[in-house]
Amino acid sequence: MTRARSEDTRCYFFVLPAVIVIAAVAVYPMIPAVWISLRRVIVVFHEDHFVGLSNYAFLIHDPRFWTALGNTAYFVLVAVTIELLLGLGFALLLHTSFRGQKFFRVAILIPWAIPTVVSAKMWAWIWNPEYGLVSRLLPGSEMNWLGMPGYAMHAAILVDVWKTAPFVALLLLAGLETIPVDLYKAAIVDGASPLRIFFSITLPLLRPTIVVVLVFRTLDAFRVFDAVYVLTGGGPANTTETLSIYAYKMLMRAGDFGYGSTLAVVTFLCVMAISAIYIRLLGMPTRNIRI
Amino acid sequence: MTSRSRAGLVLAVIAGASFCIGPFGLQAITSLTHDSDLSHPGLPGALTLDHYKSAVHEQPFAHIVRNSLVVASAVTLASLAIAAPAAFAIAKLRVRGKSVLLGATLAISMFPPIATVSPLYLALRRVGLLDTLPGLTIPYTTFALPLALWILTGFFQDIPSELYLAARVDGCSMFSAFRKVLLPLAMPGIATAAILTFIFAYNEFLYALTFLSSPDKRTIPVAISLFAGEHTEPWGEIAAASTLATLPLVIVAIIFQRKIVSALTAGSVKG
Fold first, then answer.
1. Topology of the domain comprising B49-265
2. pLDDT per residue over B148-194, tens digit each?
3. Is the distance from CB of A112 to CB of B263 less than 8 angstroms?
4. What ipTM did this prediction achieve?
């Protein structure tokens, strides 16, 4: 008994470093973040005093915040939908056997490996008004695509789709591979059409994987920064400014740490709210780890 | 399969593969094209390495590459050194609250990084680590931990518990059983986790952009995002620098494709 107990205590030394680092660098900063959001902090002017909830009161009436929230929501909705559909298409392709499948499997991993900053620059080049691929393919249409509201947001979504749809495909493919082949065989014997097989076998059995991918992609897309910031910088006229970009500009460009932190805390609260809604609707997402 | 659906499949595969590789290929071609040829449609007439030469010379390129390699290596080492014992304990020992710990790491992997930017910025400034590479390594290590922890926990769980118990019966302490028996067996997992952690740290942008200000401290993503010419954006050089910076990652991804895919799909959230 004493031995078992000493064993129990000593095993905590193995997890202690991980707990300390996570607590100190990830969880703990959230407290000062909330604290700073209740203050007026302008670093360059050495200004720092408590202002209560006035940053939050300002936020409620800040049209730029609501635009950024709307932009973020639109980005998440459209990007995640396309990524799921395209990813499912890729996964179904990879699940059938064909020549050159290995090549496709490798090709699909390339966007995942490339830094988001580089992806955004690549796409910015494709949309370049003078020399870009699009302008070359559509001669005479030397449009400044990224300078036009509406187009710019969809160009940003395309960067995210390019980078992430392959990753979604790999996750969904892993889900597809867990579906027993016998089910398909039985369905074919029963004379089910491919469409019927897809909707009655594949889709229902893939649901748990789809739920996991949906939850994680939504939360990931909501904090989007790199892809949009490098592609458009939030422009034109703030039409692609997401919450992360607005908060970043407030913090690092305007130097307003108080209001910038308020924006950051609200972004964090949005992510929490989305998680809560998902858990409520779909249940706790489970991963392949047995605890 | 009918020949028509066969043709459809081939077409879909070609479209899918070109979508994935196309932009990267275009960037590689751009990097090798003379500036004067960039405005012409079609393939370049003659290839040139000029953009590579000027990309390497005009920026503190060697510094930047070195910064990225140093930070990414340090993050990989630190996060594996912290994650491996924790993953071992979660998988093989009776640690109370292990589901809480795993849940918490999963939750922080979904944190919007912007939420921690201002407190970390002020904290790093206070301790004098702002605009230093160690100042970047600490937050990176934390946010790489979830990934490493989840991948390694999966690997340690796949090692039979009998091996651990046998080592203990033979007189190994808890620590030496971990170090001499379990750790060597988990090496494939460690290697996979190392690749993914390295790529995460090498690609990160927001913290690097915020916490580093001197041009010679920048990491590759920051340098590429801020690449500026005197008059117009030097697209050829950006393409050359981007190709140089990403080619190693692409090669690693191709070589370790199987390992990466299985780790991403089994235990991780996002690389």
1. MetI-like fold (1.10.3720)
2. 998 898 889 888 888 888 898 888 888 888 888 889 999 988 999 99
3. no
4. 0.89
Alpha carbon distance B245, B221 (integer Å): 9
pLDDT of residue A2: 42
Nearest CA among A286, A268, A19, A24 for reference residue B105 = A19
CB < 8 Å from A in window 207-246 of B: 209-210, 220-222, 224-225, 235, 238-239, 242, 245-246
Q: To which H or E segment does residue A47 belong?
A: strand A47-50
pLDDT at A130 over 80: no
Please tell me whether residue B47 adopts helix, strand or coil conformation.
strand
CATH topology of domain A49-282: MetI-like fold (1.10.3720)
**Which candidate from A15, A106, A229 shows the least CB-CB separation from B257?**
A106
**Which residues in chain A are closer than 8 Å to B108, comparing Cβ atoms?**
22, 26-27
Does pTM top 0.80 for this prediction? yes
Structure tokens at A108: 């699909």
Are A216 and B110 within 8 A, CB to CB?
A: yes
Composition of chain B by helix, strand, coil, percent to 5: 75, 0, 25
Please give the helix or strand (H or E) that residue A40 lies within, else none: strand A39-42
Closest CA to A228 of A143, A116, A94, A110: A116
